[in-house]
Amino acid sequence: MLFIYLKIIIKTMKLPVIFLCCLLFLTVGCSSPSTVHLYGKFLKQAEIDKIKNSLTQAEMLVEVNRLPFPNTIGDNTLIYAPSKGSKQQAEKVMNLLNQLGIVIDNTGLILASNHSFSANNMGLYIVPDDIVARNAIHIEQEYDIPLFNEYAARDCQNSTTLILQKNGQFRIEEDIWDASKKLYNEHVFKGIWHLKEEKFIFLDSPKIDYTLIFERTAFSRKINGGELQGYQLIPMTSYNKKSNAGRLYCTYEISQVL
Hints:
The chain is mainly β and 258 residues long. 12% of the residues lie in helices and 36% in strands. It has three helices and 15 strands. It has an eight-stranded antiparallel β-barrel with strand order 8-9-10-11-12-13-14-15. It has a five-stranded mixed beta sheet with strand order 2-1-7-3-4, covered by helices on one side. A hairpin with a 7-residue loop joins β12 and β13. The chain is globular, with a radius of gyration of 19 Å. The termini are far apart. The N terminus is likely disordered.
């Protein structure tokens, strides 16, 4: 197997987070049911139940937690990843909340401090009117995008997410649309990964025919209303697109809005 070694030094990027005041227009298409992570630290149980019931009735999955808010969040905020159908899902959540008298003051893409969300996942932070926010939305903070994270596929034929874990294991979740049943079938691939030369990532799984090799590179891309900056995992070889390796061997990325 041919190994390609490039001499590019990737410097860790430290970028400020600026929340967008409007939704970005993203690619339209079908998507699997979104999981809304409701941060209920400041909510009473009755308020949590009301929000959860509304979203659940709209066929969304809801996971509730009472974890601390990121330092950049002081008002009602929705954070999500840019993916197929994400704009429509975000608008759907905001419309449902409006019916409950809850107005989303800010929307953002990908990251809020150290909180990140992959495709089909959203972070919903609710701050009631009687709560005095301790932090301002537009405080600029510097931080690193960690290597151990969730990466959304940019050019896979199906909706796919790669998760690199600190314990040396990885997980790839592939959602394949079944038109006859009008639902997504999830395929999960697990295995081990390791890093070489601080930028080459090797993935091995019993369910994948070959070793998948990626190069981790920094990138930036202009979008409507700002700029995306982050990291991409770029495939180093190519395989038959009909095989497991070929379907999963895509460009994965994680980024933040500048």
